[in-house]
Amino acid sequence: MDSLTEQRPGRFPNRKNIIFYEERNFQGRSHECGSDCADIQVHLNRCNSCRVENGCFVVYDRTNFMGNQVFLRRGEYPDFQYMGNMMGMMGMHRGQFRMRIYERENFGGQMHELMDDCESLQDRFYMSDCQSCNVMDGHWLMFEQTNFRGRMMYVRPGEKPAATRPFLEPV
Fold first, then answer.
1. Which of 86, 121, 143, 160 has the fewest Cβ atoms within 10 angstroms?
2. β-strand 149-155 against 27-33: which pairing, if any?
3. pTM value?
4. DSSP annotation of 83
5. Rounded to whole angstroms, how far apart are CA atoms 151 and 44?
6. Per-residue model confidence as pLDDT tens digits over 87-110
7. For the chain, which domains are there?
8. At CA 25, angle to CA 38 and CA 69, rounded to 5?
9. Beta/gamma crystallin 'Greek key' domain location, by residue (predicted)?
10. What's the rounded Cα separation, in Å, for the pair 112 and 124?
11. Which residues pair with 132 in a beta bridge?
12. In what helix (H) or strand (E) does residue 84 lie, and over which residues does it extend?
């Protein structure tokens, strides 16, 4: 894993914390992070295991927040090679993806349906904002900015009448 982004910016006393290890089973040199790190290889030669002590993180397999992403919750991950086989156990959705997005809260304003990635809601649908949604199939990551940049929001299946409610979890 080469880069990571923190799910929720940590503030004491609930500081988010992840420790990366060069070797499997938490062996070898280690590096502790509590915030964004665009290139873990600045601190370690490689990363083969990690321990999330508090919070949730998105870990990328390439530098600068690029490549495949893995969502990590509190716990121990002793072997990243095994993680590829674990993806199905970590919430990978194998069916279709479908979500309706609405311009205003409580499903008001323009409505559009998404079934695949969208780099820009503004360019594709001429929407000025997205304030509510209904996720019918799959799990989605919504981004603050175009081209999958900025803060991400993890959205679970179900109706979401307002973007400020807890259904959207900052990633």
1. 86
2. unpaired
3. 0.49
4. H
5. 26
6. 333 334 456 789 999 999 999 999
7. 3-90 (2.60.20.10), 98-170 (2.60.20.10)
8. 35
9. 55-94, 138-171
10. 10
11. 102
12. helix 80-86
